[in-house]
Structure formats: C-alpha cells, structure tokens
Specification:
Two copies of one chain form a homodimer.
Chain A lengths: L8 H24 L5 H10 L4 E2 H7 L4 H13 L3 E5 L7 E5 L1 H13 L1 H8 L3 H16 L2
Helix pairs in contact in A: 1-5, 3-4
Chain B binds a DNA duplex (23 and 23 nucleotides) through helix 2 and helix 4.
Protein name (chains A, B): MarR family transcriptional regulator
Pfam families (chains A, B): MarR
Organism (chains A, B): Streptomyces durmitorensis
DNA sequence: TATTGTTATACTCTATAACTATA
DNA sequence: TATAGTTATAGAGTATAACAATA
C-alpha cells in the first residue's frame, strides 16, 4: 500500500488484538440483543452449519465437554436446539438447531452492523484480498 | 487475487469469525501457560501500553466497572500489577504493570506461536496490506 | 479398555444494584 | 448531583475429577 513496509509482526499482532476486540464486542452485543451470552451465540453459529455431537461441539469451541452440557441445556430450555440420539452410536447425542434457533442465529449475524459496515467500506477487490490473506494466515497450515 | 471477486460480505464474516476464533484460542492457550485467564491476559495486554484508571480499563475491555475490581484484585495478589492513587483526582486509582507483569505479558505474546507463524507465512508487503485492510475495517470509522 | 455425555465441585467472569468517597 | 471504585449477589462460563452407559 505504501512503498515502505512498516508492519512488523508485533505491530500486526497488536492490530489483530484490537480487531478481535472490536469483532467480539460487536458479536457479544448482537447476541445480547437476543438475550444470549457470547458462548451461547457461538454454539448457535457453529450449529448453523449443521448438526453436531456434543463432543464435536466442545472440540470446535475449544472448551471442556462438561461445559457443553450446561450451554446446550440452556439453549434447549429456550427451544433453540434439541438433542437427538445418534442412530449409529448410542453413546452420542446430536444437537440440532430448531427453526426458532435458525431464526435467532440469523438475527444475530444481521445485527453485527459495525463489522458489516467496516467490511462494506472495502471494494470488492479489497474484500477478496482480505479473504485470501486471512485464509493464508489462519486456515491453511 | 483472482479476476473474479468471489468474496461477499457473508462469506468474509464467516472467515473473520473463524480467524478471530483461531487467534483467541491461541491467546487463551498462551495466557493459560502463565496460569492466567483470557480476561486477565487481556487486561495485562492493555496495561502493557501504559497505566490506566480502573474506569478506563473497564471501558477498553467493554465490561462493567465492577468486574475490573476482581480481575485487578487477582492480578495484584500475584504481583503483576499495582494500584496507585491518582495525583489529580483522589477518587481515581491508576493501575500499573510491575516488572514481573511486563515479563509475563511479553511471555504471553511470545507464546502465540500459531498466530505468529501464520503471519510469518506472508511477505512483508502482504503483511502491510493486511495491516492496512484491518485498520480500514476495524479502526477507522 | 477407551469414549460419550453427565454430574459435582470450585473458581472465574459478568451485569445489576447499592454503597462510600470524592468531585 | 454526578463520577470512581468497591461490595454483594446471582447467573453463566470454565476445568478437573468421577461416574454410568456404550463401544
């Protein structure tokens, strides 16, 4: 962007920390607007991609399996998810979003206006570049 | 990066969610290696830039002021920070990192190897580009 | 024997409300 | 009156350890 590279890894990590804080704050606020905690919102977001076993959920959210019990308990009590026995392994319970759960999850994403507006300040090509860079840093190994 | 833009805002937000999740996981693990919670690590990171009043800390970490009391209590008990009375306003307490607090904070950052290695896969120019894009999305308004 | 999910426990985080000491 | 920080409280997240059911 400039002729002189001015971004050492330390400064970039600092900015990443600030960016994460902004994103996470936006997400937490959006979840709170549906009376959900950030952890509950994260679980719903993961389940929006499809059903998952308790253990798999815990792995994805990088928390202990015992935590998932309470989180899913509270979401189930509100009718946002339900537990279903796995047909192939009777130890396993699959967690599935209900229709109301899908609605709430989509509402959370729609409410993340700060992040959305930030992204929409970029041109289509810059969004493409950001996508590619993030993928190289955080996804590919 | 390609001639055809393929990155709509929704997909980019999804990738952002995954990327920041990876960063947060890396940070949480690094903090845990120093026997600190993520919130404690975040507070130290903010204080690494310089002293801050309790209220200002709560604002930066977007949590209620009453939470800071407990978080700073625990950090102070471990000798990582200390409270100092403000010279200009006797209601205010400034929180300052101790030398040990600085050491621990730097150790956390040094431990974030997954993120660091991800960033170091980029050329200096690509790091510059990523810096500029993140700043435009999350910092400038 | 190993794994899945749950329970019990203890500690931490979080917001709300009420309090004090300042301003 | 308003603000900075603390305390009390209750609900939620978190890891550890132990357990029953199943593989």
């Amino acid at each position: 962007m400039t002729g002189t590279p001015r971004t050492d890894t330390g400064r970039l990590m600092e900015l990443l920390s600030v960016s994460l804080g902004a994103y996470y704050g936006d997400f937490t606020l959006a979840a709170a607007s549906e009376n959900l905690t950030a952890s509950q919102g994260k679980a719903l977001t993961v389940l929006r991609r499809g059903p998952a076993a308790m253990r798999s959920l815990a792995d994805t959210l990088t928390c202990d399996a015992s935590n998932m019990t309470g989180i899913i308990d509270r979401l189930e009590k509100r009718g946002l998810v339900r537990r279903e026995p796995s047909p192939s392994d009777r130890r396993v319970k699959n967690v599935v979003l209900t229709a109301e759960g899908e609605r709430v999850t989509d509402a959370i994403r729609a409410r993340m206006s700060a992040t959305r507006e930030g992204l929409e300040r970029l041109s289509a090509q810059d969004r493409d570049t950001l996508h590619s860079l993030l993928e190289r840093v955080f996804v590919s190994q």
